[in-house]
Amino acid sequence: MEETQRYSIAYKGLKNGHHEFRFAVDKSLFEAFENTEIKDGACEVRVDLNREESQLVLDVSISGHVVVACDRCLEDCRIPIDFEGRLLVKFSDEVREYDGEVLWLLPGEEQVDLAQYIYESIVLSLPYQRVHPEGECNPEMLERFRIVSDREFSAIEAQAAARGHNDGEWAKLAALREQMISEASVDPQPADEGAGAAKE
Ligand SMILES: [Zn+2]
Q1: Cα 132 to ligand 1 centre (Å)
Q2: Ligand 1 centroid vs 117 CA: distance in angstroms?
């Protein structure tokens, strides 16, 4: 895969000590990962690689922005990215899984591919809530969602009432409300009772 080459560091020929690398992240990195929420982005990745006798220490900083769907209005929303992390690269004859801190390579390998690490670091640094700043959401979209959710609410309420009393709190509340409404409409019935009494 081309993306793999693009974010790889060929460390084999490096002397012990510090070396700096820079990578530019764009849309193609996110497209390489399926099911990603990230639609686009532009980030600069700086890697300070310290080659030691038996391992590589990579101090990685990523800054820029990505584009995701806003949680509130679903329109494109720019999220700033500012990430700093340390990745250790160690060597082992056994094939070992990357555990989030140490990337294991076989002794014969010549380069370390950072595409996965960079992608995951960007995803992990996204905030829990991805929304436009207050007041910058698309008002038409917000209005559309409000109408839909009002309609959904009435539909759920009607269903719950139809199902009766035994379907959980929701149904109980809905049924109770239904009852109160029908009792309220029964209230003006003293007139009927009067009519009944008159029949006697
Ligand atoms: Zn929004």
Answers
A1: 4
A2: 29
Between the CA of 195 and the centroid of ligand 1 the distance, in Å, is: 61
Residue 191 DSSP SS3: helix
Quote the CA–CA distance of 103 and 100 in Å, as a whole number. 8
Structure token pair of residue 144: 């559309």
The full DSSP string for 41-60 is EEEEEEEEEEE-SSEEEEEE
At 191 the pLDDT is 46
- Give the integer Cα–Cα distance in Å for 77 and 138: 11
> What local confidence, expressed as pLDDT, does residue 26 receive?
94
Q: Tell how far the Cα of 129 is from the centroid of ligand 1, in angstroms.
A: 11
Ligand 1 centroid from CA 139, angstroms: 9
Distance from the Cα of residue 149 to its chain's centroid: 22
Residues with CB under 5 A from ligand 1 (ion): 70, 72-73, 132, 137
Give pLDDT tens digits for 131-190. Answer: 999 999 999 998 888 887 888 878 888 887 777 545 565 665 666 566 555 555 544 444
Measured from the Cβ of residue 51, the count of other Cβ atoms closer than 10 Å reads 16
